[in-house]
Amino acid sequence: MSDNSQAAAQPDRTPVRPSPSPGGPAPEPAGNIPASVRAALKLPEADGPASHAIHEVLELPMPDGTVLRADVVRPADDGTHPVLLTRCPYFGAWRPMVSEVSGVDPATPGLMAGVLGMQAAVSLDRAIAEGFAVVAQACRGTDISDGDFRFYVDEAADGTATRAALSALPWCDGRILTFGNSYLTTTQFTAALADTEHLAAMTAWVSPSTYDDDLAMRGGVLLEGPSYEWARQQVRTGLWRDGRPDAPQETLPEPVEAFTPYLERVGIAQAAQDLATAHRAGGHVVDWVRHPLHDAYWERLVYPVDGLADLAVPTLHVSGWYDLFQGGTLRNFTAMAAGAAARGRPGDVRLVVGPWTHLTFDGHLAGRDFPGGGTDDVGLGELSLDFWKAALGDEQAAARLPEDPVRVYVMGADRWIDLPAWPAPDAVEQAWRLGAGGVLHTPDGQAERDDASTGWTAWVHDPAEPVPTAGGQMLMGPPENAGPHDQRSIEARDDVAVFTSAPLTEPVTLLGPVRLRAWVAADAVDAHLHAALTEVSPDGTSTLLTDGVLRLSARAGAERRDPLTPGEPVEVDVDMWSTGVHLPAGHRLRVDLAGSNWPRYSVADPAGGAPVTMRVLHDAAHPSAVVVTAVDLAAHPAAPPHRGRSI
């Protein structure tokens, strides 16, 4: 299968551009695709190095006989080359877009190898010029590969088998580096934890970790809208692949505006059954609904911390402050960095966090621009190339890498800084106390003077009128739905408790984990506590920085449920992940508390449709506070953009 004629053999079903379902977003013609999308793809130039390379479709039988296919572009010579490998379930949806933008037939051999640009900020031309072969394999049961797609289940076995098969090809030098975003990190980590043979390095952008606290749930609460939407897209592409018409809009509606009332009407359990009935690619949501606790099912889907710490594979982790998987990426990095440090090789594991969402990496987000915050601004593509080459033994490339392994963008200061570890070694925790009258006390002792006789704040959660979603670390609907949205319309509601500091007399830089430590009560056996941290500008804009949620009955751990005693307070910690922001003097910090965030999360209904009164206590005996991580920004000079070798 190494010669061109065999490798280029086409499967018997050629990818075709599907028609959209009624009410669904129609694919745009190439002429209407925004320039920003074209730039993000970093597709090859007409007469660039990739145009002179070998383009082929590679068929690789898996141990069970299922044939997986990959688009390959590799240097046109007789030498052997390291391979950049990605394994992806989305090519069936991406292929028409890449085809239109590049102006070629969707069945063109090697076409999807061009996604290297949007998955690693490195153009295919640059990779070929640097001597890499690029392999973009469609996961089992997707696009041009055979078999049935099953969320997560086959990725370890297929990934290790693919690496072994590639290493035996005459044009591969036996060294394989994996790359990719989101689910494409799942295909990397699961295979790496099973076997690291031939694996030289990984590049993991926006990666989940504990799936029931990243992908399906957070804090024991189902990410309902995103779970439905992702599965709905997999159903659609699965139906297209099988040559079947899309599910009717009235059966499985989209987009968000259409599926929200559907979920309200039928409930997520029925919606999950509808997805599974429409196509097997959507069947995993049934499992997610059936397993609300962290049990054996979820144990199979996590990356064990001990396993990651022992995983001696150079890895570049990338995430964004508003990324759906920010928490998972930071967990993955922290575990692997500890292992690398113990082995005396801290530079083997690196982290970059930018002002990005799960899909947008140019520094221009809905609600706020971040100057110099794009991947090109920081030189992430060049950093990735040098990281890969360093992992292959290139000492000059290793010398070009930053001395410190962590590079983060500080919003507000609008600059990148380098850190020797995450969180920064000089970081300190600060507790900003909630107080009576909606006051958020600065960490200087003022809270001790708060009136203990009015030491609680109440609001009413009505499951029939949930608080709407407004931005944040999510993936639901168009890319602009995520990010630093203004929260003033949310804060104006009666069912949201708002605590605001006085204007800052001196600047404050928050860089690191954020959590809510609070004493809360509800007049029901359960409730959800949603917490958001915002920055309030002098003009009143309340910009979301980070947020989190906890099912109160899951306060002792995701593997159990401890019902509330109605009216009695319990102490809880809400993980709000992390942020990196510089607040100038005159700005204020704010905490918003609510009982819902819909349709991003399932809505708690512990009283059979009846409203539930919730309280947060903040007297001397119950010092509820948002605990942030602060640094002295003056101690962290701006990092220069990474500049690699010119070719």
Describe the 3D structure.
The protein has 647 residues and is α+β, with helices and mostly antiparallel strands. Helices cover 24% and strands 27% of the residues. It contains 18 helices and 25 strands. It has a 10-stranded mixed β-sheet, with helices on both faces. Helix 6 packs across helix 7 (183-194), helix 9 (256-266) packs across helix 10 (268-278) and helix 10 packs antiparallel against helix 11 (284-290). It is globular and about 80 Å long. The two termini are 32 Å apart. The model is unreliable at 1-31 (pLDDT under 50).
Major beta-sheet overview: 10 strands, mixed
> What do the pLDDT scores average to?
92
Q: Spans of 5+ residues with little confidence (pLDDT < 50)?
A: 1-31
Alpha-carbon distance between the two ends: 32 Å
Percent range of helical residues: 10-25%
Radius of gyration: 25 Å
Instruction: State the strand order across the main sheet.
Output: 1-2-4-3-5-6-9-10-13-14
- Per the principal axes of the C-alpha atoms, what is the gross shape? globular
Alpha plus pi helix count: 18
